[in-house]
Design a protein that fits this description.
69% of the residues lie in helices and 1% in strands. It is an all-alpha fold. It has one domain.
């Protein structure tokens, strides 16, 4: 497709060069290599106020030097606002723990989770901002680190579900990065096919959320290449077409998965799990993420203050189980503790810290949507990687639990979103507030 013919006169494609620092080649090579090595070391962890990973310690040691030489970058509108909202979230968590008289061991873990997210973000953002290769190399390090963690320091679920809770995320990210190579990136349809194939692999291994993320990423790459949706300013008609296309795509993916499972393509275990989670009145989404029944009630009961770090209350566990039973879902066994179930970045922050935690993640959600808009409007260099990370965030914020290595990975995800926005003319021309 000829971009110049379809784009408006004032359109300018993404230009990374003005933001790249002119330095000698050798320091850049070592810096890029360290960007890969750093997240690879995630398998090394220590028990200090909960689980702390070696990359987080290294990022903390790096931060003073990064602040001296590049700290002014945090004063730009988006990173400054993110850190400010994170600080308000932190203060709200501290106040909530005091009001709720949260045990010190729980409070220290809840507060440190927020502190290290903000510290990780500050270091990662300063380290990769304006360094094009480091965006790629840090993602490569995350992928290799996830694989190494499975072999060296696996979590408790990895033995029974090695793909979903072990090396699957790392292998999938490697596939996305492979699709980013110049040979494939110049043939975007081929790049999309590679990522869609990774989605099929994840559906086959019962990693449904990652399969959906790959499917959306592949579809997004296809529409940015198409004549109907090519690189141009978004108009109302385009928004309607994108919403319609997205709705049809999600319905098609869901229908295909339902047909495949019922036809026993993915094995009897996957079929039994699907039937167990989808037989209720509200389908698979509620069956697979039943925690929303508990967390939403906890938020209704205390929307401003929250319930405290690692909030425990058997009332909300019982609420969830009763609601599932009433809606026709088969109960899958009792929970092992009285923690208020959340399984969501935004709902977990809201339940534990109150409204301020939800505002932080809502802002992150808006950043992600804006970043996808940039990728749609411009010929961004790393569109496959950026869109994959963006869709991953769009899933994780409402549907995944936050903590542990997620502090490091989400710090990179948020950094990538903001760096992408700052490396375009989007902030200067967008009607959305910065």
């Amino acid at each position: 497709m000829n971009i110049e013919k379809t784009a408006p006169r004032d359109f300018k494609p993404v230009n990374w060069k003005p933001r790249l620092t002119a330095q000698s080649q050798l320091p850049n090579i070592f810096g890029d290599a360290f960007a890969c090595l750093l997240p690879m070391l995630t398998f090394v962890e220590v028990e200090i106020v909960g689980r702390l990973f070696l990359p987080e310690i290294l990022l903390l040691l790096m931060l003073p030097f990064l602040l001296i030489f590049r700290g002014h970058l945090l004063l730009e509108p988006l990173p400054k606002k993110l850190i400010l909202l994170g600080f308000i979230w932190l203060l709200s968590q501290i106040a909530t723990d005091i009001i709720r008289d949260t045990p010190i061991e729980d409070s220290s873990r809840g507060v440190s989770k927020i502190i290290f997210l903000l510290l990780n973000f500050s270091s990662v953002y300063l380290y990769i901002n304006g360094k094009k290769n480091r965006l790629f190399m840090f993602a490569l390090g995350i992928a290799l680190g996830q694989i190494l963690m499975y072999f060296i320091n696996p979590n408790i679920y990895a033995e029974n579900y090695p793909w979903k809770f072990g090396y699957g995320s790392g292998v999938t990210l490697l596939i996305v990065l492979a699709a980013q190579f110049r040979f494939f990136s110049r043939r975007k349809l081929l790049s999309a096919i590679i990522i869609l194939s990774a989605g099929l692999l994840n559906f086959y291994t019962d990693f449904r959320s990652l399969g959906l993320i790959c499917a959306l990423t592949g579809g997004f790459i296809i529409i940015t290449k198409s004549v109907s949706f090519g690189y141009h300013a978004i108009k109302r008609a385009d928004v309607a077409k994108l919403i319609l296309f997205g709705g049809i795509a999600i319905y098609a993916i869901t229908a295909f998965y339902r047909y495949s499972v019922n036809d026993d393509w993915f094995g009897e275990e996957v079929r039994e799990k699907y039937l167990l989670q989808s037989t209720g009145d509200m389908g698979l989404l509620l069956g697979g993420r039943a925690e929303i029944l508990a967390s939403s009630q906890a938020i209704i009961d205390s929307p401003i203050i929250g319930h405290g770090s690692w909030a425990k209350n058997p009332k909300y566990v019982d609420t969830m189980l009763d609601a599932l039973s009433q809606r026709g879902y088969a109960l899958q066994g009792a929970l092992n503790d009285d923690l208020i179930p959340t399984h969501s970045y935004i709902m977990g922050a809201w339940v534990e810290a109150g409204l301020a935690g939800a505002i932080f993640w809502f802002f992150a959600l808006m950043l992600t949507l804006r970043c996808l808009t940039v990728c749609y409007q411009t010929n961004a260099t790393y569109t496959p990687l950026i869109s994959f990370i963006a869709f991953n965030l769009l899933w994780n914020i409402p549907f995944s639990p936050f903590g542990a290595e997620g502090r490091l990975f989400s710090a990179y995800d948020l950094s990538l979103m903001i760096v992408t926005l700052s490396m375009t003319r989007y902030l200067a021309t967008s009607k959305l507030p910065a």
